[in-house]
Amino acid sequence: MAHDIALLPGDGIGVEVVDAATPLLERAAETHDFEVETTRYEWGSDRFLDEGSLFPDDAMDRLADHDAILHGAMGDPRVPDYVTSIEGPIAIRQAFDLYVNYRPVRLHDAGNTPLKGYGRNDVDIAWFRENSEGEYVDIGGRLDRGGGSELAIQTSVYTEKGVERVVRAAFEAALDREGYLTNVTKSNALRYGPVFWDEVVEDVAESYPSVTLEHLLVDAASMDFVLRPDEFDVVVGPNLFGDILTDLTAAVTGGLGLAPSANVNPDGDAPGLYEPVHGSAPDIAGEGVANPIAAVLSGALMFEDLGEESAADALRDAVAAHLADDGAPHTPDLGGDGTTANVVADLRSRL
Ligand code: ATP
Ligand code: MG
Questions:
Q1: Distance in Å, CA 259 to ligand 1 centroid
Q2: Pick from 317, 299, 308: nearest CA to 1
Q3: Where does the UniProt annotation place the signal sequence (predicted)?
Q4: CB burial class (10 A; 0-12, 13-18, 19+) of residue 291?
């Protein structure tokens, strides 16, 4: 059985971490008796600067032919950030209607959290960020009325179908986990979108009587993820809140260098897009010190969705053992002085 993977390294450390993770994924496949075939697409900011677009016109058709996509990141100081986001990974999420952005985080070692009093596996949160609508529908505009009275409008859109499907996915995950779901909302100050969102959550909850549902306002949630991160299980939230708070939960469990994500459509057969939560990190690009673990764990999520559960576990076990071993070479974001290559070699020896 061979899985056909599109590699879309992108820019900056996106390229470094995909190049680091790929041989480890191939190694895990080899030891679990399946093959991965990879096709590499050199699309990103250099292409944008040369040809005016990140992707060629037939990019989505070509990606559609693969079983899954492993992405690094897009972003470059020479290109506006909204181009590399909206015309990059967001365009892929939209094209394939990848409405679930699954972002699990786990504390692997007490030394990885900036918080006191938490040890191995004490924090284990599965985030379900709505990924297809909301604040990121790209609807709005600017109007310059002259005389210093320019205005800008940015609209967010939530549909019943759009909310229902991601909320259902989160409830399903809660059934498989601790049976506890937190809904992050802001229905006290925003009367249309968030109030509607909460109503849909309540409707879906009726089908899941065994799941305990908690509603948290996003401001309180930001505090609680720092003060009691160990009490969360599954979390669901709108696109923008999910974007912001998953950086926070990543930080609590060791930082962006460890945080993977899966953009998926559980209903169809569109390829999932697997990528680290982090961006292209221009500040450390080219130095060979990017932490490849978020990319490796994104590969583990990809294997899991491709039905290769034991290879996914092998990758996760290697990462957990690496993180728990104070003698192993860790990258500078984790306080070590190891390089990307050192981490790859260490993980390889554990596979
Ligand atoms: P982008 O615009 O592409 O999102 P960014 O400037 O927001 O890029 P991120 O990539 O999100 O940057 O990174 C934010 C910070 O976290 C940077 O200081 C970066 O060095 C650090 N960081 C992110 N990913 C990693 C990683 N894999 N290893 C080490 N440090 C990282
Ligand atoms: Mg960023």
A1: 11
A2: 308
A3: none
A4: buried
Adjacency order of strands within the sheet including 68-73: 35-40, 2-10, 68-73, 272-276, 260-264, 100-106, 124-130, 234-237, 180-185, 212-217
Residue at 69 is within a domain: yes
Place of tokens 């010190």: 289
Within-domain flag for 325: yes
Q: Which two tokens stand for residue 53?
A: 């677009």
Asked if residue 245 and residue 262 are part of one domain, the reply reads no
**Ligand 1 mean position to 4 CA, how many Å?**
28
Q: How many angstroms separate the alpha carbon of residue 84 from the centre of ligand 2?
A: 11
Dihedral, 129, 131, 136, 138 alpha carbons, nearest 10 = 180
Give CA separation, 268 vs 16, 159, 185, 205, in Å.
31, 19, 28, 23
| CATH code, domain with 152 | 3.40.718.10
Ligand nearest to the Cα of 89, by number:
1
- Host domain of residue 74: 1-112+257-351
Predicted pLDDT of residue 268:
85
Q: Give pTM, 2 decimals.
A: 0.94
Q: Does any ligand 1 atom lie closer than 6 A to the CB of residue 330?
A: no
Domain boundary among 252, 281, 306: 252
Q: Which segments of the chain have a pLDDT < 50? A: none
Q: Whose CA is nearest to atom 19 of ligand 1?
A: 281
Name which residue sits closest to atom 26 of ligand 1, judged by CA. Answer: 257
Same domain for 131 and 234, yes or no, is: yes
Predicted confidence at residue 192, as pLDDT, reads: 94
Identify which ligand lies nearest to the alpha carbon of 12.
1
Contacts of 176 (CB under 8 A, 6+ apart): none
Q: Above 0.90 for ipTM, yes or no?
A: yes
Q: Is the CB of 18 under 6 A from ligand 1?
A: no
202 with 224, same domain: the answer is yes
In ligand 1, the atom with minimum distance to the C-alpha of 282 is 6
